[in-house]
Amino acid sequence: MLSSPIQLYKKAYSGLSRNSWYLCLVMFINRSGTMVIPFMTIYCRHELHFSISQSTLVMGAFGAGSILGAFIGGKITDKIGFYYVQVMALLIGGLLFMVLGYQVSFASVMAGSFVLSICNEAFRPANSTAVAYYSSGGNLTRSNSLNRLAVNLGWAFGGLLGGTLAGINYHLLFWVDGSTNILAALLLLKLIPASKVMKQIRKSIMTGKAASPYQDGVYLAFIVCAIIFATCFFHVFTMQPLYYKGPWHFNEFFIGLLMGINGLLIVIFEMVIIHNLENKRHPLNYICVGSLVIGAGFILLNFLPPSYYSAFAVLIFITVGEMLAMPFMNSFWIMRTTPANRGQYAAMYTIAWSVAQIISPLLGGQVVTYSGYYALWWVTGAMCLGASIGFLVLFRRNFKQKHIPIEETVF
Known about the structure:
Blueprint: H1 5-13, H2 18-32, H3 40-47, H4 52-80, H5 82-100, H6 106-133, H7 140-168, H8 171-191, H9 194-207, H10 217-233, H11 239-245, H12 252-277, H13 283-300, H14 308-335, H15 342-371, H16 373-398
């Protein structure tokens, strides 16, 4: 007998800690203002009148800064704990968003994007460590999905609002993004007071083992595959908006609407999907399939006519692939950590995405400049296939005969 939808959702959300829900709320507030980066290439191209190469270089500056920020954030997290790293990154990042909105020259926008990204990405390893800390092994993937739910619910709201604000005045994007960062920091201080958690956090750091992620060969191989995967996925925020704005002639509102729908679909379906998949197969299996589905979504752009229906079809493929891959990618790296080294593992995973954030717009810009969008979508699909094969080989060589349930691997 099939469970009713209400029972499915009740089971999917049960058993999560109060602090996990608090982190979810903080992340929702923060991500509700995420509207600068999704519209940054369009802003640079059509408002500041940068070339396509310059616009993609700005996104590359975000990626370069995020590498340094993730490394610093991971190191500090393992030294002092995740709490204050999150708070300071949100506060300072909020102010830097506002400052960036007043930069108009290519050099100043590049510099501002780099510095802002350092601060923004220092937050990610600390936040990932916090999510793992407040979860138990049995609901680790769901705890990550709850965090992603907040991200995507905020993303849906921010994407819709961002598209509207961009049509009025692009400077509003920077003010809203900065303000929500600051509000999220204040909310974190209120909901989870430092006095109630810092003692336990320091104790867990002092008592855990601290093996280095840089000596973990399996993890390093996973990181290489993750970079390839993320390079493709970032086209959703860099090259795909330019494609929709240019050859397909969509306006900013509809581009923002697509981003919002992506977030809403994840909010509605991901937790139920993860509840039914968690601990049944090794995470790398789901990541492999998700990579393939995302690649198929990009390739569809070469076959479908330019229309709203085509954009929605591509969106469905990419969203399904994202729901299958990303929650389990987080679970995989957390499985290999202890509280004493989780910040550095999280930093390396964040750095993988930061490297991809550099490669993606640079590669995309060059391919489009010399060969056009048609070639770009084929290259992206081929790279997704390569990432999928890499994840599959990693699973077969290391885990096929010895899968250990997640709840037995988290310290």
